[in-house]
Specification:
By secondary structure, this protein is of the alpha/beta class. The protein has a single domain, classed as HAD superfamily/HAD-like (Rossmann fold, 3-Layer(aba) Sandwich). It is built from 5 helices and 6 strands. The chain has a 6-stranded parallel sheet, sandwiched between helices. Strand 4, helix 4 and strand 5 form a beta-alpha-beta unit. The longest helix is centred in the middle third of the chain and has 17 residues. It starts with a strand and ends in a 5-residue tail after the last helix.
């Protein structure tokens, strides 16, 4: 079984450009490549799960969304990092679609498609909906500060709140493998 870190995309791996529709505007958060290499070296694989309500709103072209993910995959590969898959939920916020976070559909699809060990895997995101989706899928989670204020009164709670991407990775690695 694989141990996987599921990552939200915007505000977690790349800067949130609010309905990114142009692959040339991709900008990675500081420390992303270094942090992912550390996680890779600790035995983790990676899956990206991203809500994309801009598609049904007509703000993000579906072909551009695929190209954005192709460019990210290519940039990652050039830095020695493999992304197992990108799952996107092109549904409106109001839809409550099972694939749209906070619902766990994208994560559950990744768990099934890649034989993921939930006890050794994580969800990382910059919004409470990411943390909730991870909890519903049976994963531990890290909240990355930046996009949304972290509210410690909300449930479910993240296992850790990180100030930056490298701190996310360091925390996950320090937790070790649950089978140890």
């Amino acid at each position: 079984m694989r141990k996987v870190v599921f990552f939200d995309r915007d505000g977690t791996l790349i800067f949130d450009k609010i309905y990114l529709n142009d692959p040339q505007q991709i900008e990675y958060l500081p420390g992303v490549f270094e942090g992912l290499r550390h996680l890779r070296d600790a035995g983790f694989d990676f899956i990206v799960v991203t809500n994309q309500s801009g598609v049904p709103r007509g703000l993000v072209d579906a072909n551009n969304l695929h190209e954005i993910h192709r460019v990210i995959r290519s940039d990652m590969a050039q830095n020695g990092i493999d992304i197992l898959n990108f799952y996107s939920a092109p549904f409106l916020v109001e839809s409550n679609h099972p694939m749209r976070k906070p619902n766990p559909g994208m994560i559950l699809a990744g768990i099934g498609d890649f034989n993921v060990d939930c006890k050794s895997s994580w969800m990382v995101g910059d919004r409470q909906t990411d943390i909730e989706a991870g909890a519903r899928a049976g994963l531990r989670s890290v909240f990355l500060k930046g996009t949304e204020d972290h509210d410690p009164s909300l449930t479910p709670k993240a296992n850790w709140v990180a100030e930056n991407f490298l701190e996310v990775c360091e925390f996950i690695i320090k937790q070790g493998d649950v089978s140890d």
